[in-house]
Write a structure and sequence with these properties.
Order of helices and strands: EEHEEEHEEEEEEHEEEHEEE
CATH topology of the largest domain: Diaminopimelate Epimerase, Chain A, domain 1
CATH class of the largest domain: Alpha Beta
Structural class: alpha+beta
Largest sheet: 8 strands, mixed, barrel
Shape: globular
CATH superfamily of the largest domain: Diaminopimelate Epimerase, Chain A, domain 1
Oligomer: single chain
Number of domains: 2
CATH architecture of the largest domain: Roll
Number of strands: 17
Strand content: 35-45%
Helix content: 10-25%
């Protein structure tokens, strides 16, 4: 591989390394994601995102977690892609279609500049069918299902936003030892493709606090699809109204589950951290 030009970006602290796949070919993205994501010996990130041509949309994303596993999509990364392609002259449109393994996402660029920009992503309809999430639990939707972990019963609500999520409403989340607890949910046998896990405190009808253990990445400062799943689960459980602000470790996300079309909309900042070139 020749020297690799990249851009480090973050959305609510969910940071990825972005590579322009129009000009650069990555032969082994799985291994590269592992190497570059290392926060001690690499660039440091939650994973690697490739921005690629699409036959059906304006752009296509391919993303890899820090452990090298490929993910269906990422909401925070989708926002950053919108900013990247606009800032780098790959498009002059402020409404962009993005092909992902979880379907087409619709990105709208709002206010901002070269450093940071607010962006809304139409994340589509939430998936509540346990077969499609997937989770090995009968009945739909899966709300407050009792799951025993280390002798304690946790109540999980399961949603897919193109990738699987288990949402847990509880208290005292700042004190949880997620590096110990998270993998026990992620790798539980009831999740055939593993799962992302959101630990949620309900503040009021319009506000949630959240910590997240991401499948293949560990605890991250934010997860866009996880925030959407948490909002859907909170509405289904009648904890909140249809518009919520979710406070994550890396910042806030605004989520709306629209009643008229059943789509979930996520709004938050996309920020360019720095650009660089990796000498190979």
């Amino acid at each position: 591989m020749r020297n690799l030009k990249f851009t480090k970006m973050q959305g609510a602290g969910n940071d990825y390394i972005y590579v322009n796949g129009f000009t650069t070919t990555i032969e082994n993205p799985t291994q590269l994601a592992i190497e570059l994501s290392n926060r001690n010996f690499g660039i440091g990130s939650d994973g690697l995102v490739l921005i690629l041509p699409s036959d059906t949309c304006d752009f296509r994303m391919q993303m890899f977690n820090s452990d090298g596993s490929e993910a269906e999509m990422c909401g925070n990364a989708s926002r950053c892609i919108g900013k990247y392609v606009y800032d780098n002259g790959l498009t002059d449109k402020k409404e962009i279609t993005l092909e992902t393994k979880a379907g087409v996402k619709y990105i709208t660029l709002l206010d901002g500049d070269a450093k940071a920009r607010r962006i809304t992503v139409d994340m589509g309809e939430p998936i509540l069918d346990p077969v499609l999430i997937p989770v090995n639990v009968s009945g739909q939707p899966v709300l407050n299902y009792p799951l025993e972990i280390d002798g304690k019963t946790w109540k999980i609500s399961c949603v897919s936003m193109g990738n699987p999520h288990a949402v847990i409403f509880t208290e005292g989340i700042k004190d949880f030892d997620l590096p110990v607890l998270g993998p026990k949910f992620e790798n539980n046998p009831i999740f055939p493709r593993r799962t992302n896990t959101e630990f949620i405190e309900v503040v009021d009808r319009n506000t949630l606090n959240m910590r997240v253990w991401e499948r293949g990445a560990g605890e991250t400062l934010a997860c866009g699809t996880g925030a959407c799943a948490a909002a859907v689960a909170s509405i289904l459980n009648n904890y909140t109204d249809r518009k919520v602000v979710i406070h994550l470790l890396g910042g806030d996300l605004e989520i709306e589950w629209c009643e008229s079309n059943n789509h979930v909309y996520m709004t938050g900042e996309a920020v360019t951290v720095f650009e660089g070139e990796l000498i190979r």
